[in-house]
Amino acid sequence: MNNRKYHYKTNPMPKAWEKKKPKFPSKRMSHFSRIKQGKPNKLGKPIPGKSSTWKVPGIVFLASLVVIILIIPTLIALPDQDHDQAHISTKKAEKKSENPSSDNQKPVELTAGDSPFSVEVMRASSNKVEDVPLETYVSRVVASEMPVDFEMEALKAQSLAARTYVVDLLLNQDKKDEPAITDTTDNQVYSNDAELQKKWGKDYDKNMQKINKAVAATKGEILTYDNNPIFPAFFSTSNGYTENSEDYWENKLPYLRSVKSPWDKDSPKFLDQQVVAVDKAEQELGVQIPGDLEADVSRTDGNRVGTLTIDGKTFTGKEIREKFNLRSSDFSIKHKNGHLIFTTKGFGHGIGMSQYGANGMAKAGKDYKDIVKHYYKGVKISEVTETAPTLVAK
Known about the structure:
With 394 residues, the chain is α+β, with helices and mostly antiparallel strands. It contains 14 helices and 14 strands.
């Protein structure tokens, strides 16, 4: 080191170089170049006379550089990998919860012990009576009355309506010693186990599991108004509104009021057409139908035909619907080429709960309690054992 200092002192820089020398070098010597100034010999030591000033710092720098190159990208990538892995794990967990394996999913069974009483059903095909536990009866009505691919909350709402219907019917039957329940649309459509197996084939177990789950979730619940079971009318598809009971039937019931039902537009049964020959229509109605038919029509709160006057004779929308087997009493008529073309909106009488409307509400995130309280105004959900103790005592 002393020799080098002495060398600098005895051989000062030329003044010409000092003038050209910038304050900071324009090009720094690389660490690799500086290492070359002191090439190691066979013993790993620098050769005398060669500079080794930058050897150790250079090695340290190289090692640091390797660490930076290898470690830093890993550190940057790891959080994203962890996040992605966590995201994938969450998705797998969600998928597992939505589609539990058969090992983890316990089958839902409705036993006789779940039912406080049995229902006697008169079978139209055999003219024989089947004695069925209440909850089993409800599950088979739901399986017969509502599409099984509907949302779970819609199936629950249908379960509640079916149970309430049969309880109300049994409490108000005229002849106590005869079955009051049929298996047709006169009451509620009912199919027994063998009939449902034939209907669904290989999908029977899966479908019944879904329906049993809906029924079990509402077990023992019925709809009441002023502490009495309601008449829970239901139908397939509305025209966008439900109907006041007195606008289609005779009785005015406070819980069967016209309400909006915008979800029904997605129903495959929302629109329909029926074509009737003019001469047949004249025979059915007992009127002469002019070529420039302009019927005088009044509409209900549910936007269905209240009354219709043709050739001076007035009919209700219900009468026209039933005479020509129309899907709905919301219809319009066009006279064309000797025929009447009826265009209808909705399917059914329109009173109470719309099934496709219920499914639309369920898809929108509403639960079965929201659904029934929308379509049946002012009702409460009660226990059958408290509301109908006379049936339970049988």
